[in-house]
Amino acid sequence: MDRLLPRVLRVDLTRKRSWVEERPDLFRDRLGGTGAAIELLHELCPPGADPLGPENPIVFAVGALSALYPLASKTVALFKSPHTGNLGESHCGGRTAFALRLAGYGALVVEGRSDVPVYLSIHDGGVRFRDARTLWGMGSSVTVGRILRDVEPGSGHRTILRIGRAGERGVTYAAAIAETYRHFGRLGLGAVLGSKNLKAIVLSGRGAIPVAEMGRYQKLYRELHERAVRSDLMTKYHELGTAQNVGPLNEMGALPVRNLQATRYPEEPAFSGERLAQGYLGRRLACAGCPVACIHLAALREPHPAEPYFYKTTFVSYDHEPLYALGAMLGVEEAAGVLKLIDAVGHVGLDAMTAGVVLAWATEAFERGLISEAETGGVRPRWGDVAVYGEMIGRIADRESEFYRVLGEGVRAAAERYGGAEFALHFGGNEMPGYHTGPGAFLTYLSGARHSHLDSAGYAVDQDLLRRGEEIPPADLARRLLAEEARRQVLSSLVICFFARGLYDFPTIAACLGALGDDWDEGRLRNLGAEILRRKHAFKVREGFRLATLPIPERAVTTPAPGGAVNGTYLRRALAEMERWLEGSDELEG
Amino acid sequence: MAKRLAVVDVERCVDCLLCAQACARRFGEGGLARSAIAVRSAGGVERGFVVVVCRACDDPPCLHACPVGAIEKGPVGVRVVLDRCIGCKACVAACTIGAVGWDEEGGKPVICVHCGLCARFCPYGVLALEEVEGG
Q1: Distance separating the N- and C-terminal Cα atoms of chain A
Q2: What ipTM score was computed for the predicted complex, to two decimals?
């Protein structure tokens, strides 16, 4: 481990002060990233903290491999989530990890609350609190990025992380946006930043990282690079991007459509990866340090409403999850319509996934008469009506009325207020991801530390079992998912993109760390993964979370998945096994 | 025949920075401190990128700007004689395209030597070594 990684930059917005702490314990013994951040969160976030109060810290962290090895390109953010009321964890690519690591820090911790809107300008070892009153309240986060790009230094080696007006106003699923097209999307980091009166963080870094054994490092780097560019990562993620999932999921009947009333479109959706690439793909981008370049920007050319013969071209970053949430869940038929909605949530700074599920709930609630135009303020949500959804996105961000304020807290809050819990698709308060593949997916959503499909990838286990025509007992599925989630804790401590999980098995990781002078082996890595997972679960339990009694949305178990309707009792048995393991001390089979 | 590093297809650049990382590894370190190649957006990433690197001028302004003769013509491009360099940054100011980098720690310029290591790691054929006439 080099001498710079254990440096934690602490910023207190209340007192406008910053200082650096050395925490080798967190970066040597826990590798940094999520392993370090969960410890900082336990230390700094008081039990029962108000997620939107000054006492809720935000921890951004990178890890031992960040900016050194291929695809070690992500930054993790941990905080107490205003959306679920327990652990908030979100990962982001772009240039965040490079900038933080090469600025000479392993973590940045933001605490307190500024009395006036500010943004942080962090360059060359200095932290400056800049006036953001002019930026506050701006209609679009894109404009904020454009301004900061011009007034701040560090072009080419900086990150510009900012919130939109949804974050300023405390929508509990407001996102933080990096480099215009990447996001800390889920669980409300944008709202926590907004509650601190912090509009943006501009951070640059282009320092050196000393490497203990350069020869070994160079060789490993070369091998991993070769494997990455020759692997199926390139066809899978570079050519079509994650949008390539839309078609196959639709075909197998696992794409949630119209609030999961259906699981497929009759034909291939207009927003499948192939159709978007053919009709709209305008540019591909990479996160710093990644050869794959999975980021796909659509060029959306639309006639200007006021000026004849004039077209505006908007670039919209698309991925499977936003396409699912703002396309399939809303029954949108046109690719351009989905792209417009993805663009709209980016401008106001909402999590695309939650926003889509919220609008889907509202549409069904409206159809069923649980809400009327009195609540919606005269708009009539209707499947596929992009103009109405665009309007509602703005109203949610602006928290325009009581109804939109409630929608701004997610479908759990909306169903508590207006009814319709049976079709409110949330798991532990976090809205459903875009895979209706079977019990594995639901268990991941329910049990995953951040209720994300990526926590333990149950959707992949479902598809594997379907292919083999196998069914396994609930306790076996529980342990398989826990083992995967524990393994992923090591990846997100280092911090490696999950797309590279196939490149980085434990022996490879141990070798990568060895070249940096750190002695690790497979067993120690496995134990660390399990320990981090338990530390996250302990934080959630501390904040009132109970896995075994989590409600399972009725719609999720009544709409058949490809292998048939999911059995609620099966899920309960698996959850009980998961809770037993998470709160015990047994080892897991790999 | 000598070879020059050229930016041959900038439209395919995805801003992965693998070129800049590769360059820094020549110095036995990670990071970007002494990288002689840089990538920045052309006014927002959606508009594409500018790859900034020495283009091996026939008559290099940086060489003329150096007051102590620390920049000499190389087989392709220039070579910095670090022991002679006084760190005045006149070369940085003289380069029209901003391709003279600066090593903050060492206080010396960093200029591409056209070794082509960066091109070997560019996944998309943005960079290539080209034959130079009479080089």
Answers
A1: 27
A2: 0.95
